[in-house]
């Protein structure tokens, strides 16, 4: 659970700095990853009870690409992000985000996320490795069926030092976030064709646990200070559900697979709140489409940077998302406690 | 090595998910199509309203009702899941005058997930 998936926040300059770091053979916190695996396995073995995912009244909110869901559910997703970075040191970045969330109570759950990063620096070698392990908790405190509204709060912690040194930060980041989802199905019938619209979003700060990194050049004795910024994440998605149109507004004769599609445009943004570069905003506009089946979602989107600081090339996002609560409704897809 | 572990984990999860367990699950039930169609205008009063879902329904917990524009219930009160087609929810109608009618449904899929919805159709 995090407001904006990490792959969207990696810029070329940051990543090129990472690749220069001396690699260490093994991650000193590999036990955390092992614990994550055991936790997932444990949660898969415990039976609980089944509840709905991402639904408020008639509205089904799909999982989207880089803007986190406003709801908590049992789900597993893989997001593949590929983008070509320009600049002095051009490269190609491929990130594979893996997210798993598990409800402990019907409206409260935990989420674990990891990302495998691969950077190909055009003939200058490549860097691979796992990013830091992320752990979050989310409480869906309001679900209003009549007004198709969901509100949640959560906190996510990217645990510094748990990833490969070449590609991850040595400090942690704490991100408390407010999530929201609102369908427009309660609009009057005079504007019927606006009723399939919905908006979801997330807003909250991200605090680094260390304000700066100081490195010493052993040859020259010079020090280099890099400030770790506090940022404000503000991300939202605009959705038009053909499912909703077809089922609740007007059957316009859409066939398979269009009758289960949702057109999505995401706007994942981050604004710097720290002294250096205060007010600078990075982000992208991600137009795409999601197909929601009974047990899984598939999605594809473009990732268009909003300014040169965010990148100069258009990336591609691919989503594979499994509804664990639908796949395993009588066992692992249920909350641990009612 | 890490790539191999990732691939192995992903392959294992997908094999497990799609080859072993989906056969016993049902998922949420969403409407596939209906008669009269959602948002349509029909000539003459239909004999019944029927909604086909994309999964089987629990008969005991699934309901359907039809209301006129004033909110008064006008169906015959015999809404049911069709015994021979468990994904079909239906209710009979008396002869209705021209007007706009709202169909309200509430279903529980075989896995216990509840979904609700409504739509209108008109008789001219």
Summarize the structure in words.
The complex is a heterodimer of chains A (338) and B (124). With 338 residues, chain A is mainly beta. Chain A has a single domain (6-327), classed as Porin (Beta Barrel), CATH 2.40.160.40. Helix content of chain A is 11%, strand content 46%. Chain A is built from four helices and 17 strands. In chain A, the strands form three sheets. A twelve-stranded antiparallel barrel of chain A has the order 3-4-5-7-8-9-10-13-14-15-16-17. In chain A, strand 4 (91-105) and strand 5 (108-120) form a beta hairpin. The longest helix of chain A has 16 residues, at 30-45. The radius of gyration of chain A is 21 Å and the shape is globular. Residues 7-13, 15-29 and 39-51 of chain A have low confidence and may be disordered. Chain B has 124 residues and is α+β, with helices and mostly antiparallel strands. Chain B has a single domain (26-123), classed as Immunoglobulin-like (Sandwich). In chain B, 15% of the residues lie in helices and 36% in strands. Chain B contains one helix and eight strands, in the order H-E-E-E-E-E-E-E-E. Chain B has one helix at residues 2-20, and strands at residues 31-35, 41-42, 48-53, 63-67, 80-81, 88-92, 99-108, 114-123. In chain B, strands 1-3-6-5 form a four-stranded antiparallel β-sheet, with no helix packed on it. In chain B, strand 7 and strand 8 (114-123) form a beta hairpin. Chain B starts with a helix and ends with a strand. The A-B interface holds A 49-52, 55, 57-58, 60, 76, 78, 96, 98, 116, 128-130, 145, 164, 189, 192, 243, 246-251, 259, 294-295, 322-323, 325-330 and B 2-3, 6, 10, 13, 17, 21-22, 24-28, 30-34, 37-40, 54-55, 111-120.
